[in-house]
Design goal:
Length: 212
């Protein structure tokens, strides 16, 4: 299954994406590091955690997807892999919600790639998957990523102190959310109108800390 809008494609991550995924990550090491999720130091009684390999990561994402708790995608732009987007923390029952995290190649930042990918993912979650609420958590300092959700019309709901371990420390995050009732016409349709009205894209985007 692939979701497409113009030059932007959102599709499930694959094992054979390893070479392209590693190449993009290598080139963007400095660009991604300040927003990258890290593993906190082990507690006296806890195990020592290690960063997973690419294959371990994909196997984990697939297990979570089969269990209905995650939707792991890569983002393609003009036919090449330029980022990753994951809908994680999917909860059913009376909540029916999930949260979105993403990162994008600095080389294509500012072209509206990630706002388009997020809009595609949110519409899929609301219309095909059946979720009711999507949230995005972003460090207050990450102004470019905040612009993405603001351009898409997410509501800011407040601050979660020391919410995630990012770049070596527990960091505060702002919460942005959207429910299905707020975009009856679809988030992608709203984003198209915004781009037409403003005549511009959303600027650079990166919320690596949230990709699950």
């Amino acid at each position: 299954m692939a979701l497409t809008e113009g030059d932007v494609v959102l599709r499930p991550i694959r094992m054979r994406d390893q070479r392209a995924w590693r190449e993009v990550n290598r080139r963007n090491r400095d660009w991604l590091r300040p927003w990258e999720a890290t593993i906190p130091p082990p507690t006296p009684t806890g195990p020592i955690a290690h960063r997973p390999t690419y294959r371990q990561m994909v196997r984990h994402l697939r297990r979570e997807a089969r269990a209905g708790r995650m939707l792991p995608f890569v983002v393609e732009y003009q036919g090449r892999l330029v980022g990753q987007l994951t809908v994680a923390g999917i909860t059913w029952g009376s909540m029916c919600s999930g949260h979105v995290g993403y990162w994008v190649d600095e080389a294509v930042a500012g072209r509206g790639v990630m706002p388009t990918a997020v809009a595609l993912a949110v519409d899929h979650c609301f219309r095909a998957v059946g979720l009711h609420r999507i949230e995005v958590c972003i460090r207050p300092e990450n102004t470019p990523s905040r612009r993405v959700v603001e351009k898409l019309g997410f509501r800011e709901e407040g601050l979660r102190p020391r919410y995630l371990h990012i770049d070596g420390a527990w960091r505060d995050h702002l919460v942005f959310a959207l429910t299905a009732e707020e975009v009856p016409e679809g988030l992608l349709a709203r984003w198209r109108r915004t781009r037409t009205r403003n005549g511009s894209s959303a600027g650079p985007q990166n919320t690596r800390e949230n990709h699950g």
